[in-house]
Amino acid sequence: MYRFTNDYSEGAHPRILNALNETNLEGNFGYSTDPHCDHARQLVAQAIGNPESAIHFVVGGTQANSTCLCAFLRPHEAAIAPATGHICVHETGAIEATGHKCLAADCGSDGKLTVEALRKVWQAHPDEHMVKPRLVYISNTTETGAVYTTAELEALRKVCDELGLYLYLDGARLGSALAAGGASLKDLAKLCDAFTIGGTKNGALFGEVVCIQNPRLAEDFRYIIKQRGGLLAKGWLLGVQFETLFADGLYEQLGQHANQMALALKEGLQGMGFSFASDSPSNQQFPFLPNALLEKLKGDFHWEVIAKNPDNTTQIRLVTSWATQQEAVDAFLQAVRQHSGV
Amino acid sequence: MYRFTNDYSEGAHPRILNALNETNLEGNFGYSTDPHCDHARQLVAQAIGNPESAIHFVVGGTQANSTCLCAFLRPHEAAIAPATGHICVHETGAIEATGHKCLAADCGSDGKLTVEALRKVWQAHPDEHMVKPRLVYISNTTETGAVYTTAELEALRKVCDELGLYLYLDGARLGSALAAGGASLKDLAKLCDAFTIGGTKNGALFGEVVCIQNPRLAEDFRYIIKQRGGLLAKGWLLGVQFETLFADGLYEQLGQHANQMALALKEGLQGMGFSFASDSPSNQQFPFLPNALLEKLKGDFHWEVIAKNPDNTTQIRLVTSWATQQEAVDAFLQAVRQHSGV
Amino acid sequence: MYRFTNDYSEGAHPRILNALNETNLEGNFGYSTDPHCDHARQLVAQAIGNPESAIHFVVGGTQANSTCLCAFLRPHEAAIAPATGHICVHETGAIEATGHKCLAADCGSDGKLTVEALRKVWQAHPDEHMVKPRLVYISNTTETGAVYTTAELEALRKVCDELGLYLYLDGARLGSALAAGGASLKDLAKLCDAFTIGGTKNGALFGEVVCIQNPRLAEDFRYIIKQRGGLLAKGWLLGVQFETLFADGLYEQLGQHANQMALALKEGLQGMGFSFASDSPSNQQFPFLPNALLEKLKGDFHWEVIAKNPDNTTQIRLVTSWATQQEAVDAFLQAVRQHSGV
Amino acid sequence: MYRFTNDYSEGAHPRILNALNETNLEGNFGYSTDPHCDHARQLVAQAIGNPESAIHFVVGGTQANSTCLCAFLRPHEAAIAPATGHICVHETGAIEATGHKCLAADCGSDGKLTVEALRKVWQAHPDEHMVKPRLVYISNTTETGAVYTTAELEALRKVCDELGLYLYLDGARLGSALAAGGASLKDLAKLCDAFTIGGTKNGALFGEVVCIQNPRLAEDFRYIIKQRGGLLAKGWLLGVQFETLFADGLYEQLGQHANQMALALKEGLQGMGFSFASDSPSNQQFPFLPNALLEKLKGDFHWEVIAKNPDNTTQIRLVTSWATQQEAVDAFLQAVRQHSGV
C-alpha cells in the first residue's frame, strides 16, 4: 500500500529520530526551558532574520492556532479567514471555543485571501452590535495547496496596517510553501505579526514553532500555552527536533523533496490528460480521476476523496511528504497508465 | 419628529406602566420567585397550550439567545442559522462567546431557513474534525420581516427529528409574527424544543419569555440565567409585565396594531409606485426610496438605512410598533406624496 | 408582613417612577445613545469628579461584574477577592464562565480584603504554571455590611501599584457605604481603576453604573456589554433613572435613610442585649436571635437566615432600604421586646 | 548532576523508544485510528477489566484534565477538588478557562480528599446563586505523594452516588500509586466515572490514557479532544507507546522501580534522622534538610524547593522515576552522610 493520504503518515525523518535517541537519557529541565530549545530558538531566529522574535514550541497545529488567537484577541475581536481556512472548517470550532468568531471571507479554489475579500468583511462590521475584526488568518500553503507570493503578503500587510488588523499566518505546511518559491521565512518575519512553522508535516514526529514578531502579542504567551494544555512536560523533545530541522538546511530540503514528488505526480497525470481542481505548486495535488480508474487503484494506493462529480469522476487529494519515495510515485503513475489505457 | 427607527423607541404600553406603578411598593421576593411571575407563567402556559413547558423570564433578546444556546449545547455542538439570522450577525459574537460556532445557512431576502439549506450545512459536517450541528436557530419574524407558516415549521421540525437537531425559535418580534397569520403560539409549543416570546418590541419596558418544551433542555436553566447575568433581582417586574400582556389578549392586540400601521405604510407607498426589497406582512417594511426624497423627509421622520443603491435610491427600514400612531403614518405618506410629486 | 429580606423587595423610588412615567412616550434612540443617558453620564462624572471617566449603564450587578472582568482581563489573568466576595460565592461562577479564576483571599467576618491577605495570594502565584493575579475585587459595602475607609483603599491602591494589579470596586451597595462615612465617590474615582455604583439596591427599578477611570480598560467596552447581553434596547430607562438619582442628591439621601433604619434596628436590639456577628455601620445587620423568638416573629416579619448555632440561636440578616419605613422598624423592635420579655 | 527534580527529565524507556524506531516508517492513518491505538485500547481495557470503557489517548496531563472536565460538565457545574489538587493550583486556570469553577476542599498534608471535606463543600452550594458541584477530582498519587486505598475510593464513590457527583481520578502518577499498593486498575474502573493513566511520568515520551466508564460522559469525546487541540496527527505514536507499556507488565515494573528508588532515599534519610513533611509511599519524597547541607549538595544534585522554614531547614521534593539509577540514590545518600557528618 502506497499512501498519498496525507503528510503525517510516517514518524520522523531518520536524522530527527536519531537525535531523539541520542538525547533520550541526558536529563533536561522540563517545559522547553532546556538548552535544546534555547538552541532551536537561536537557529529559528537566525533563519527568520529576527533576533527579537518571541519563539515558542507547541505540539500540534490546532493547538498552535487556538493558543495564538486566544492569546492575541480580546473577547469581542474576531478573525477574518478565507472560507476554506483551516480554522473556519477543520478544527471543530477550536477558535469559537476560545470565544472568538471566525469571519469567513470569500475565496477562490486556491484558498487565498484577497485584499478585496478582506475589505468586504471588514466593511460589514462597523459597530459594537457586531464583532470587531482584529486579526487576519491565512495559511501557507493554503488548504488547497496554493502559495502566497511576497507581493501578495505585502498587499495584505498594507491593508492590515490601514485597518488596524494583525496578520497571522498558519505555516502547518510552510516547508512545502518555502520550497515552492513562496515568500521566504525572512519575508514572513517582516510581514506577519505572528506565524507558525510546521514540523509535523515536514519531518518531525510532532511540533510547530510559533514566531511572534509583534511584542504586544508576545506578552505572557507561556501562560496561555500552559492554560490550553500545550506546554509539553518533556519540552526538549521539541527543541531537539527543531534544532535538527534548522541545522544544515534540513527543513528546506524536506520541503523540496515533498514538492518534487508532488510535481512528478502532477506532471505524470497531466501528461496523461487528466485535469486538476487547482494549479498547485506544492505537496498537495487535486486531480480529477475517473471513478472506474480509482476503483482499480484503491487496493494498492490510498488518497482522500474531496468531491464526487456527476460526470463519473472524483476529485481526490494526493499528498506527498519528506517520506514519499520515488518508487511510490512511479508505481502510482504506472498503475494509472495501465488501468486507464493511456 | 416621527420615528420609524425601530420598535423599541418608546417605553411601555400604558396598561403595563400602570401595573408597574400599582405594584411598585407591594413587596416581593426576588429573582422571579414571586406571585406575579407565577401568574404570568400560568397565563403563558395557557396561551401556548402546554402546562409542562418550562417558562422563564429574562431582560433582553441577546441575553435570551445566548442563555438558551449556552444551556442547550455541549462544547462541540453548533447552531445552524440563516446567514442573516440575528445570532450570526447582530449579537457581537454572543454565541461564539459561549464557545459555540454559528453555521450560516444560505437564505434568500426573506431571511428564512429552508429545509434544503439546512440539509446542506448538516451534510458538510460529517465528523469530529468539524463542529457537530445540533440546534437550528430561526427567528420569527425574520430580520427582514418574513413570517413562518405552520407548514414551514412542520417541515423544519421533521428534518430536525431526522437529523437529531433541536429547533429553537427567536421570537423577539413574535407579536408581529402572530398577528401576521404565522404559526400560532400553540403550534410553536408543539414544534419547537424551545422558543422565546418578545416583550421589549411589543409593549413591555423590557423582557422576553423563554418557553422550553424539551425537558432535557430545561434542566438547571435558572443556574445558567444567573451565571450569565440574566436573573433580574426585582424579577417580579417581568412577571407584572407579562401577566398584563397575556391577560385579555393585549399581546396579540399590540402586534396587530403594529402590523396595521406597517401595512398602511406599505400600501401607501405601493400605491405611489415604490417598490420593496421584500414582501413583508409584518411590522418591518423595506422600501426603496429616492435619495432626493429622503433628503426632504429626514428632518421630520427617522428610519434606518439598509443599503444605498447605484440608481440614486436607498433601501430603508420602516418599523412600526404598538406605539406608532395613525397620525405618524398619515404624516409620512402625506410628506412622501408631497415631496415626490406623486 | 414587614420585609427585612433584602434591599430589592420594592420597585423604584417615587421620583424615579415618576420620571419613567413622564418620559414613557417621548421617543428615544436605543442602546443608551439618548440624551437621558448623556445627561446621567454628565451628572455621574460630576459626582465622581472625573470628567474623563468612561461611564456605562447595565441592568444588574452580576452583569456589571462579569462584563467588567471579562473586558479587563486577558485569559490567564485572575481576580483576587476576599473569600466571602460576591464573585467568589454568589454569582454561579459568572467570572469563571468568562474563563477567569477567582483567587479567594483570607478575610475576617467583615469581608474586607487586607493588604496582607492580598500579598499572600499574590506571592503564591509566581510563574506560568499558575494563573497570574491581575485584578483586585472588593465590594463596598462588603457582603457583611462593612465599609472601606479612604485610608484602607489608599493602602490597597498602593499595593496594587506595586504589584501591577487593577483595583475594582463592586458598588452594588455603594449608596449605603457612602452614607456610612466610607470613602467618597471622588475618592473611589481617584483610587480605583474601575468601580460600579449600584442603583438596584438604592432606589432604582434596576441599573448599575460602571465608571472606568483607567483608559486602557475602557477600550471597546460597549462591545463587551453587547456581547454579554447587557446592552439594554431601551437604554434610556437607565439614563432616566440615574439622572434622577444624581440630581439633587437623591442617591445619597436614599442611602442615608436605609442606614438610619438599619442603625435603629441595631441600637434597639443592642439595647435589649442581643449581640451581632459583626459591627456593621450600614444597611445590613447580622444579629444573633434566639430560635424561640424567631419562631414567634416569623408570621409578621421576613429575614434571611445566615447560620443556625448550637446554642439555640440563629444568625439572621436584616436588610433595610430606601423603602423601609420607620413603622416597620418600630413594629419589629416592639415585637422582639414583647416576645422576648426584655 | 543527578536529577531528583521530577519524573519527566528523561525521554522514553528503551523498549518504548525501540518500538517508536521500529514503527517509524510503517505508515499509519492519523488521529489514533490506527492498529497500534486499537491494540493499546484492547490491552488497557483488559488491564482495567472493563471492555466497555471508552479509551482515548492524549499528549499531556493538563490536556487530559481540561478535556475531560470540559466534556463532562455543563456550564454551571463545578469540580470539587482538594485544595492542593493539580487543577486548583498548577494548571494556570485551565479548568476555569473552560468555564468551570474549581471548588477547593480542605485537605491535609497528604493532599487527599476526605468524605467530610467533600460533604462540606457540597452543603455550601445549595441553590442556583452558586455553582452546582457535579464532579469530584482527585489525583493518585496526590500532589504530595499519598496513595488512595480501595476503601477510601469506595467511600468517596458512595458519597458521589448519594449526592449525584461524578468521580474523576487524575492518574498522572498512577504507575507509582499502583506500585505502592493503592487501589488497582480494576478497582478504579469499578469506582470512577473516568480516570487517566499517566504515561509521561512512567516511561513514555509523552501520553496519557483517558478511561471513561460512564457511557453518558463518553459521548462525542473525540470532538472535544479535537476542539481542544489534543488530537495528535500522528496518533499512532501514542498507541505504540501504550501497547509497549501494557504488554508484559512494563507499566507496573516501571512504577515499582521508581518507588524502590524513592523508598531507598526515604529509608536512608530517615536512618540519618531527617524528618519528612508526609509519610509518602510513592515516588515523591518531601524531607526537611538543613540549608547548610543543601548548599553543599546543590552542585551535584537537583531537586525542587517546596518551602523554606524559619529553623534553617528547607522542605524539598525528591522525585524518582523509571530512569532513576541506584547509583544516583547511593551518591545522594553518601553525599548527605558525608556533608552532614551523620
Question: Can you lay out the helices and strands and say which pair or pack?
Answer:
The structure is a homotetramer of 342-residue chains.
Chain A: E1 2-3, H1 14-23, H2 35-48, E2 54-58, H3 61-72, E3 77-82, H4 86-89, H5 94-97, E4 102-105, H6 115-123, E5 132-139, H7 150-163, E6 166-170, H8 174-179, H9 185-191, E7 194-198, E8 208-212, H10 215-218, H11 221-227, H12 236-245, H13 250-271, E9 284-285, E10 288-290, H14 291-297, E11 301-302, E12 304-308, E13 313-319, H15 326-340
Parallel strand pairs in A: 1-11, 3-4, 3-5, 5-6, 6-7
Antiparallel strand pairs in A: 2-8, 7-8, 9-13, 10-13, 12-13
Helix pairs in contact in A: 1-12, 2-12, 6-7, 13-15
Q: If you had to describe this structure to a student in words, what would you say it looks like?
A:
The structure is a homotetramer of 342-residue chains. With 342 residues, the first copy, chain A, is α/β, with parallel strands linked by helices. Chain A folds into 2 domains: 2-6 and 251-340, Aspartate Aminotransferase, domain 1 (Alpha-Beta Complex), CATH 3.90.1150; 14-248, 3-Layer(aba) Sandwich (Aspartate Aminotransferase, domain 2), CATH 3.40.640. Helix content of chain A is 42%, strand content 17%. The first copy, chain A, is built from 15 helices and 13 strands. Chain A has helices at 14-23, 35-48, 61-72, 86-89, 94-97, 115-123, 150-163, 174-179, 185-191, 215-218, 221-227, 236-245, 250-271, 291-297, 326-340, and strands spanning 2-3, 54-58, 77-82, 102-105, 132-139, 166-170, 194-198, 208-212, 284-285, 288-290, 301-302, 304-308, 313-319. In chain A, strands 2-8-7-6-5-3-4 form a 7-stranded mixed sheet, sandwiched between helices. In chain A, a hairpin with a 4-residue loop joins β12 (304-308) and β13. In chain A, α1 (14-23) packs across α12 and α2 (35-48) runs parallel beside α12 (236-245). The longest helix of chain A has 22 residues, at 250-271. Chain A is globular, with a radius of gyration of 20 Å. Chains A and D meet through α1, α3 and α11 of A and α1, α3 and α11 of D.
